[in-house]
Amino acid sequence: MAVGRIGLGAMPLSVEGRPREEQAIATIHAALDAGVRLIDTADCYQWYAGELGHNERLIARALAAYGSGAGEVLVATKGGRGRPGDGSWTVNGDPHHLRRAAEASAARLGVEAIGLYQLHKPDPSVPFAESVGALRDLADAGTIRRVGLSNVDREQIRTAREILGPRLVAVQNRFSPLHRSTRDTLDMCTELGLAFLPWSPLGGISPSAVDAPGTTVPPGETPFHAVARARGVSPQQVCLAWHLAQSPVVIPIPGARRPASARDSAAAGGLTLSGAEVAALSRTREDTTGL
Fold first, then answer.
1. What positions carry a catalytic annotation?
2. What is the reported pTM?
């Protein structure tokens, strides 16, 4: 399934500070109207306790209301983490839990098989191969079609590839101008032909929905702002175009709470940076006054 160069991270539509449902659905529709065909979610994207699956149900309602074209959208969800409602995150990679979680996600999304199901985070209390084996079994059972990993290192990617073979199609790690420690996994995905979905891709340009409350806004003048002024576009578009220049396997999944933000991010798919611009934007953090 072709999903284009830019996806939509739907997490901000369900967690702290989320918009009203009408605005959330309008934001999803704006992304789809702009050509986005990949929406990333997770069963634990919620604000309060007792809201398990809030984001998945929201996406299902938005797609049902969208009509023609909704069938072309790949919804990528995740299992293996939880949010008890106090702002904290839990991890559960138990195979039995993952099987139940995937079945529940499919029901909430209203699909017979989930297009892309991702292990949200390795559980240090469960052998990684056992968690991945559960995803293999889910694929064998037809509950999921494709498998992805999130928050993993190179060795875990190798292990999963041995277990899953061609069913492993994507890796989702945090990567941005501010967070580049996972560059080695991006390079590995390029070598293996796996999609690399950088989460929180605007780090260094905008605060993320996963940042702690009160996180300071990034500095207002960065090399991305300078290129944006010269190009007549937003710094966010420049940042996403920088991501696209890293590798053909990169598909950023920026979040959005407003239709205008979703449209702006989607437009980055048509912005090509020059080699000189990419080089200037790729300087080390110490060389870029705060990035």
1. 45
2. 0.93
